[in-house]
C-alpha cells in the first residue's frame, strides 16, 4: 500500500516539476535583484541611459530597424506622459465636483486649491519605479528585436523622425498647459517641507 502511495505522489508531480521549480527559483532571484537595486535610483537611470545609448548606436551603425526605434520612442513618450500626470486628473475631478455640488454633495479636490489648504503630495499616475522598470524592459526588448531581420522593415526614416517630434511637441505642450491650468508641478526638486507655522 505504501508503494502505491509513493507512486501516486511521483505521478502527481509529473515530468515538468523540475522545470517549474527552476522557473520559480529564477523568478525569486530576479525579484531579489530588483529589490536590491531599488534604492539606487540614479544608478538605475544611468544604466538605462547606457542601454538606450547602445540601442541607438545599433540603429545608427546598422542603418536599419527604424520601425523598432519609432515604436520604442512612442512607448517611452507614453511612459513619460503617464509619469508627469497626476494619478487623479484634476479636470475629471472638477467635473465630478460640479456634478456633486449640483446634486447637493460635497467632496474635496485631490490638489490644494488655496494657499491655506492642507498639503497633499503629488501622486503620479505612473510611479518612478514602474517608469524605470518599463523603460528598461522596453529598451531590452527593442535591442533584442534588432537581432532579427524580420523587424527591419524598409521605411523612409526622416518622416518617422519628423512625425515623432511633432507628436512630442504637441503632447508636451498640452501637458504643460494642463500643469499650468491646475497649478501642479510633478517634480519636487528644490522644495523644502514646511511644518507648523514657520
UniProtKB/TrEMBL annotation:
Keywords attached to this entry: Membrane, Transmembrane, Transmembrane helix
UniProt topology in membrane: Multi-pass membrane protein
One BP term from GO: protein retention in ER lumen
Pfam families: Rer1
Segments crossing the lipid bilayer: 42-59, 65-84, 155-172
Transmembrane helix among keywords: yes
Domain of life: Eukaryota
Cellular localisation: Membrane
A GO-annotated cellular component: endoplasmic reticulum
UniProt xrefs under InterPro entries: Rer1 (IPR004932)
Entry's family note: Belongs to the RER1 family.
Purpose: Involved in the retrieval of endoplasmic reticulum membrane proteins from the early Golgi compartment.
Name recorded for this polypeptide: Protein RER1
Source organism of this protein record: Jaapia argillacea MUCL 33604
Lineage: Eukaryota, Fungi, Dikarya, Basidiomycota, Agaricomycotina
